[in-house]
Amino acid sequence: MLDTVKYLLGSPGPSGFGSKTTAEQVTDHLVDLRSFTVIITGATSGIGAETARVLAKRGARLVIPARNLKVAEEIKARILQEFRDTEIIVMPLDLSSLKSVRRFVTQFEALDLPLNLLINNAGKFAYDHGISEDGVEMTFATNYLGHFLLTKLLLKKMISTAKTTGIQGRIVNVSSGIHTWFSGDLIRSLSQITRDKSHYDATRAYAISKLANVLHTKELARRLQQMEANVTVNCVHPGIVRTGLTRDREGFITDFVFMITSKLLKTIPQAAATTCYVATHPELRNVNGKYFADCNEASNSEIGCNLKEAARLWSFSEIMVSTDWKAVFAPFSTA
């Protein structure tokens, strides 16, 4: 009850920020970001677009990958209208396609730019069962597997940038508190919903993908520390906010639910605050493998803290991005 009251009031936590803090407020005292290059997935709407706008305000060079280039160009034009000196590069990327992820990284590397920040923000809530071109359940493919490969392929660039500039690189994985709704064997459940649509439940699929984001953060943090790389990775829960994730279910029921829960909802500037805080705030130098909500370190689910599960998912993901999914799921074929 006390935590709920603090949330509703926006009471600041140890960081000095809280649930009502906006992305602009957490970056108010930043040094100039004009030397920074940032890749933000999902920056064509909602939280991602606000994150991009605020980082542009602070001077960062933005790379906006997008499946819909027309919408991305519109976002670019909108940001440039407000901050004319911002350098913004729009590039094609479909996170549900591993081929597209590889193509994007090749094209980005050809630009010969540094890379200081990688914000894995894009998210999909698929109400209907779907399979990606690589044969993986669509929500997992978009929210997690595409970001896993993107991060893996960009890591060398981030490490070299940090070494050359002396500026610590940061990776931010945008998850969700919904990851706590799933308990069980993640890989077995993914196998079921990929192979048999009768097992598919949209919320469960979304929770699985967001738990995978948390576990990815844990294992990548361990590996970065082992490599002694000057790059950190952390995970964020942006909060409850009405974004494009609900656009396929407009109507009386959806509107009624959001009206009832409106006091718990954040505005988009508030929802983007934790991402911007974790990506940029000086206090978080060398902070690695943590989970944040309302601009403060928070606790996540028991399975989300399980280092063995994190390592298991990593090994599983390495195979998935390099071989056919049927071979990966073979041990679960009798599940």
TrEMBL record:
CDD domains registered for this protein in UniProt: retinol-DH_like_SDR_c_like (cd05327)
Gene3D superfamilies: NAD(P)-binding Rossmann-like Domain
SUPFAM superfamilies: NAD(P)-binding Rossmann-fold domains (SSF51735)
Source superkingdom: Eukaryota
GO MF annotations in UniProt: oxidoreductase activity
InterPro entries, sorted: NAD(P)-bd_dom_sf, SDR_fam
Pfam families tied to this protein: adh_short
Keywords, ordered alphabetically: Oxidoreductase
Similarity comment text for this entry: Belongs to the short-chain dehydrogenases/reductases (SDR) family.
PANTHER family: OS03G0115700 PROTEIN, RETINOL DEHYDROGENASE
Name under which the protein is recorded: Glucose/ribitol dehydrogenase
Taxonomic classification: Eukaryota, Viridiplantae, Streptophyta, Embryophyta, Tracheophyta
